[in-house]
Amino acid sequence: MSNIEHTYTTYIRTTPEKLWAAITNPEFARQYWGGHVNISDWKKGSEWEHQSTNDNNLVRVKGKVLESVPPKRLVLTWADPASLADDSRVTFDLEPIQDMVRLSIVHGDFKPGSAMSGKVSKGWPLVLSSMKSYLETGKAIDIWAIKRCDAA
Question: Dihedral (C-alpha) 59, 112, 24, 91: value to the nearest 10 degrees?
Fold first, then answer.
């Protein structure tokens, strides 16, 4: 059994409702997630997909909604469509604190030898930084800049 768990916490000057929309609304997510969208009805038991609008809506990640309590908590399974048995779990907890929201994300329950653990450990910090920038300033960061720098 794998005990790897990635935990991220950030504070965003926004409302829980706007942050929930940033996570679940495809057009909102596209703005800060480098052209990727999250598609679902976000009801418990529903399927969800993370698609690339830059690549003919190619499904990059998919899973099931395990828990959905808008605008407080969302729990999903997370897997590469090419390797559905290598699934993991992502929990989003949103807690209002005065004029901001504490967003806590725990990505864990990885299978032993999971390739996904290494991928998300680099991706979540970029996506969360971009989300925070977008919600607070209206301008997301270029999450692909790191890949371009690494490739140079």
Answer: 180
